[in-house]
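ok trying again, last paste got cut off:
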Amino acid sequence: MIKVMPHVGDVVPGDDEERVTRLITFIGSIVDNRASKYSQVRASDLTFYRKISGEHNEPRILLLVDGIGAFSEEYQSTAAKARLWTCFQQILLDGRAVGVHVAVTADRTQAIPTSLASNFQRKIVLRMTDEDSYLNLGLPKDVLDPTSPPGRAMQVGNPNVLQLAVLGDNVNPLAQARKMEEIASIGALRDRVRPAPIKSLPTLVPATSIPASVSGYPRDWIGSRFLDSSHVQADRHTRSWRRPTDRSFQRTCVAGSHPENNLPVYSFPPRVVRGAPLAEDPVWESTARGADAVAELLTASEPFFQAHAPEDAPGVILVVEGLGDFTYGSADQPIQNAIIAAKQKWSPHHR
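nice, full thing came through this time. structure:
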């Protein structure tokens, strides 16, 4: 509903982990950049920074989180997501001074983690399901009850009763959405510069749009930490390179890494191959199929893996398709030895 407003950058669904991660990381970087920028001119907050620097258009940013309980459960549950949760906590802690604010909703008192509760200066309480919830927040229990009108609320620390307003006299969500569109069409708002949206990773990445190398690194993977970087990360499940699009992607990455260096390139497909295997592509210098053949080829190729790589390129490219198929076989240890040797001899520029 609020996405039509010109000052709303984007609305990111909570189950879109990719965009949620990008949103929190993006706002976290704004907080860090502003903190550094404000300290250089000795500005304690956004208001003083505008006066001192003359940048009166430095905007305030408001991050809305609908359902902080579900968000905290999702991003506190695993160590893999702990970095994002730490970034969110840092936004709450440092954002207010640099004009970045956070507002959250919760369906119960216990939904707000203890580590976050002290960072919210104002708490607006709507009708609760039981009287004890009001007491836990330091509010009288006899002001709001199930018969109170929708939108009736209290603020912790404020004795006055509040009433949240609606647009017009129709509380129907569709009618509210139409009113929101009318407001968004007002000229003064329409002329505002809309904040940058939080993009999603494209479904199709043409090989021709990817540079041959990025800062000296071969174009062998794309990382999605930031969508506007030169890398795009795509999850590849086991054996997924057998699909035509992935075979094409891998072929162009290997062939375009550093063609002037004539790199030795090896492909080890699994024992059982379904469909057209990647090993049949002419880009490879040598291929081996089956554990014994792989072990033999790796033994003969030891000098390539033990040699130091040049400063501006990898010395050799090894592609193992279906690594799990070689586990506990005759090729298991030779593959591990090759990977260890390659990592040890790789140039510090590529570590």
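cool. The CA atoms of residues 76 and 86 lie 9 Å apart. The longest strand covers residues 61-66.
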